[in-house]
Amino acid sequence: MVFNTQSNLRLRQAIPNLFTAGNLFCGMLGLVFLLSEHRIALAAACMGVALLLDVFDGLVARLLGVDGDFGKQLDSLADAVSFGALPAALAWELLLRWETATGNSVGFWRYGTLLIAVFAALRLAKFNIDPGQKTHFIGLPTPAMAAFFGGWGMAVESGASAAWHQPTLVWLASVFMCFLMVSPLPLFSLKRSPGKPPSPGIGIVLGLGLLGAGFLHWWTLPLVVVLYPLISLAVFRPVADTGQGGKNAGRNAHH
């Protein structure tokens, strides 16, 4: 009986970990598509699937009652690849596309895009130990940053001119995203907290996304990510969290 109980527990624990492992696999696969084949669309698709798996691993863990520390740490490691290294590689690819289109060299400045992965890791580490991010965020979540570069990459893949991914623009965007990830700016969570009304900012973000998709197409993602902090400043008033925060507040909080 004890054996069966332990076996059932291990099986329940393994199920959400499979989702998290899938997140990591998609991140690595996206890197392969970019670094060896320069295929932005497939890399962005891998990022999108990784985001879905990142959402569902936490939901499944909570439904099965197995929201443990191992899964939480594995989740951060997977996110460091899918929403750290992969968007950094996307930014690198944007510069390569500009070199191909113009015949000019970016030079040393291309290495600045690698800071995206570094600051994403800093963001994830900060989230893990910060007790103040149970119901809202401090700084831009890494999936939002990844969506910024994923949408930008798809816009370029869809035919945007080289002017939209020239080195100065890519470099400034990279620095701006790095700053937002580790900034002390409070942002509302896109996930509703139990017992609390949803932030009005959620409706604004969703409305802008739906409206922009019909006119701006892939550019909607970068635009909404940039507006997200501004909307938070306008409509969000954070309430101090109590209890354990960060990863201890739940396996997946879209950090």
What does this protein structure show overall?
By secondary structure, this protein is mainly alpha-helical. It has one domain: Four Helix Bundle (Hemerythrin (Met), subunit A), CATH 1.20.120. The protein has helices at residues 2-37, 40-64, 69-102, 115-129, 142-157, 167-182, 200-215, 220-235; strands spanning 136-138, 186-188. Mean pLDDT is 86; it is low at 242-249. Strands 1-2 form a two-stranded antiparallel ribbon. Helix 4 packs parallel to helix 6 (167-182) and helix 5 runs antiparallel to helix 8 (220-235). The radius of gyration is 19 Å and the shape is globular. The chain is built from eight helices and two strands; from the N terminus they run H-H-H-H-E-H-H-E-H-H. The longest helix is centred in the first third of the chain and has 36 residues, at 2-37. Helices cover 68% and strands 2% of the residues. The termini are far apart.
